[in-house]
Amino acid sequence: MERIVIKVGSNVLTTAKGKLDITRLSALVDQIAWLKEHRYEVILVSSGAVACGRSELKVEYALDSVEQRQLYSAIGQVKLINHYYDLFREYGIHIGQVLTMKENFEEGEQYDNQRACMEVMLDNGVIPVVNENDTVCVTELMFTDNDELSGLIAKMMGAKTLVLLSNIDGIYTDNPSDPASEVIRHVHPDDNIEQYIQTSKSSAGRGGMESKYHTAQSVAAEGIRVIIANGNRDNILPDVLTCPEKIVHTEFSPAE
Predict the structure, then answer these.
(1) Any idea of its EC number (predicted)?
(2) Contact between 127 and 44 (Cβ < 8 Å)
(3) How would you class 170 by CB atoms within 10 Å of its CB: exposed for 0-12, middle for 13-18, buried for 19 or more?
(4) Of 50, 97, 103, 245, which sits most exposed with the smallest number of CB within 10 A?
(5) Domains, the chain, ranges and CATH?
(6) What is the value of pTM for the model shown?
(7) Has residue 203 got a pLDDT over 50?
């Protein structure tokens, strides 16, 4: 079994209007089910709770940013995990929800308990679906974004590969909208591509390519391969894992 961590962000899971894209969610579940059948052990780090909650409830008065995040994530996480439950159940695959916080990655009992929980889930064929506990993680308690979270999960669980799904094909040599810009296909441990990193972020998520780059650097330095690919492409997960030479993406080679 090859253990992989797959991170899918809000920019992949939401429509242009900010609502959850059920068609895309269903397609990703189909792909993960295929990976399970082909002896991949999958941990899924999924955004999308706030988008789910925002489309579910109309509030009668103004909320500040923290209140919005807490309210919409509390409502939306239930809806999101129910979608995953129903879709994976069609394949007879069990899932389990893991909501975590930054302090759980500090060395000690919480770290050990969290790792043990996910190990016993994987041992029994259960896919951990991981997200930040947005109801209590605010300001300094927050992860930078789910890119950072997925990197910490990959290290903690000894994954062989981390896949970061974005809404573009990878890291470009210039603005992705520029026809002359090209995707950087391979990044080796000694490569410095800082000058190519775009600092803009999508409207749906907290991260961006800068965050993915720093996460990829950190995780690859620990000996884990990192792939940045376009989650909106059909069949992206099986393709990028089994025939990567045919798929445009950015891959960070692991350090020895």
Answers:
(1) 2.7.2.11
(2) yes
(3) buried
(4) 245
(5) 2-252 (3.40.1160.10)
(6) 0.91
(7) no
